[in-house]
Fold this protein.
Amino acid sequence: MAETLPISPLAPKGGFPMLPKVEGVRFATVSAGVKYQGRSDVMLAELAPGTTIAGTFTRSKTRAAPVLDCQEKLGGASDAGAAIVVNSGNANAFTGIMGVTSVREITTAVADLLDIPEARVFTSSTGVIGEPLPHEKVLATLGDLKSGLSDRAIEDAAKAIMTTDTFPKGSMQTVEIDGAPVRIVGIAKGSGMIAPDMATMLVYIFTDAKIAFDALQPLVAGLCKGTFNAITVDSDTSTSDTLLVAATGASGIEVAGKGAFSAALFDVMDDLAKQVVRDGEGATKFVTVKVTGAVSDEDAKRCAMAIANSPLVKTAVAGEDPNWGRVVMAVGKSGAEADRDLLTIRFGDTLVAENGQIHPDYEEADAASHMKGENVSISADLGLGGGKFNAYTCDLTAQYIAINADYRS
Amino acid sequence: MAETLPISPLAPKGGFPMLPKVEGVRFATVSAGVKYQGRSDVMLAELAPGTTIAGTFTRSKTRAAPVLDCQEKLGGASDAGAAIVVNSGNANAFTGIMGVTSVREITTAVADLLDIPEARVFTSSTGVIGEPLPHEKVLATLGDLKSGLSDRAIEDAAKAIMTTDTFPKGSMQTVEIDGAPVRIVGIAKGSGMIAPDMATMLVYIFTDAKIAFDALQPLVAGLCKGTFNAITVDSDTSTSDTLLVAATGASGIEVAGKGAFSAALFDVMDDLAKQVVRDGEGATKFVTVKVTGAVSDEDAKRCAMAIANSPLVKTAVAGEDPNWGRVVMAVGKSGAEADRDLLTIRFGDTLVAENGQIHPDYEEADAASHMKGENVSISADLGLGGGKFNAYTCDLTAQYIAINADYRS
């Protein structure tokens, strides 16, 4: 299926961005034939000694074996080299002891290959859930992976981790700190089973900044809230969501958990998160849901996610119908504190309803014209307090059904 | 839209059931032209003096004006006659003070018409949210409604309250108590925006049993848990969900909140709830999700609803794909206590996975054959405790998108 889908109409118009080299990181990809044929499906990122690795992961109770392994390894000693190995086509999730064995086989072999501690090898797997991972196919390609390592192969890496994605996702920021450039580059995959809870499907970000784990980890977790934890395609949270941020320190520039570096890291995470939504299965519209006036930010998020996950709101967007009654419904069911008679709703800049009823000057043609665009904005002000949250989603189309009714066949 | 949809393939094969007359209730319907043309869209049920009326309602924070009015009136004196008035085509929801006025205009006029207290007139409205209800169209038909009252018109009543429903929904039970028959009949409407929270879209049940409000109300609320609160079509909770149970007492048989009457009332509620699912927008399969082994019934419900609401599970059912990995995903995201390695999953009678991995004897052909049927059963045992819950839903098809992308046009 993945190979035959047309590229999302919401894909960035310029294609994959030009990403600068980040000192201390090299990539390689191979075709191991885990499931897909005729395309690369394994990627290796080799990281220089001293690289700090932070991460966030799915909070699913049925987390996959590679996720549990990564979580254990986070925060360990960082003086040695490190590696990230990812395969697509099989998620190695719900595979019992076989899944644990597969992770161990791969991490041990990669540790030997690169002469680094096994505790510094992180893996992810993405694809079908519940089928044993044929890890021997991955092991057979390790020699080719090592000999193929290149500091220019990040676009290939972004392609190797795709499943139902229709385009590879990359982003970058260069930020000047103490007069010298610090680079941040990242890649991501994901288009279905997207309702991240701590992270999204698979995201890998690399920087040559120098930063300790104790500063990087809370920074990454904090920035997740408004980026990967603010997106949803279908309300379905994956067993495998993983975000790893690797800071090689090769620039020699020490950074803290705030300021220019934090802002640049946010920009990369924000861009990648929105690219995941832009590749939402069957998506034809990118939707920003802005909730303000809630009693707290948590309540605003609850409300924004209820709107963003409502099948009736999402099908109305697909039909270019400014059906604000369904927005009212979603606010009402969200569980957030709300008073029907204080509610204000806008589509784009058009004021639709105020104080619990339709605005006297509202012309449906204005809202309908906004809905015809590729970017749709739905705003709800609850009129109760200062809590706010922006969520990002896409519309729900017949193509989503078509993709998911026969993904495995 | 409602008029042109083909009848759901899951509709009861025998059509609308033969419902017995319930002494103390008469029905009438008219075409008021609220929104639909060429069909009836208002129904009146006249109830004899002394009728006890219990009910449950949506817990949405954006409840419609008629719902708020019904909630206030519940439990009042019941010696006088009573009435239920329902219009389709317009939900009178999010209509501010205009909505309150519309309710008052209708209830006052009906009270005058039937010479009963205004506090005994209950109304519901169902249809588009956010547009003012043209209540003068309803008022203009009251004379016709009164002259049309008949104790045989319940099927017409079931038809008048339909919106995107493709078939009218009715159910009955007759139960012998103290050697005499007590009758229970009910009608319901609903097919989208179905994820009831205390009740479903609109349900009216009538019985000639004699029962006090203080016994009937907790009975109805309790029976809701396993019936209307156990179904979901699209996870979207309506602003207007209303269930009213009217006991005329005309049989002279006093019943309590348990025993044979309770069992018969459950059967009627269960049947109507499942008929709502069977008319789920675009549905081609009726799905029973059984969760057992949870730490509590509440946790079992959380898990069952996560499976029943997952777009990825529902599209897999539409595609007749026994994609149990998606069931694992839904268990994991549900928030219910779960241990991946204790999980058992079945499609129909086929044991698919046990102890966190695929069963060695599992043959996909067996599960695939079950998925081809009209009734699909998905069972998950969490292996932790005695908590259990059954949820009922339908598949998610391209037809759901088609119906909802242009419902208003």
Observations:
- The domain at 2-278 of chain B is CATH 3.60.70.12 (L-amino peptidase D-ALA esterase/amidase).
- Chain B is about 30% helix and 25% strand.
- The first strand of chain B starts at residue 25 and ends at 30.
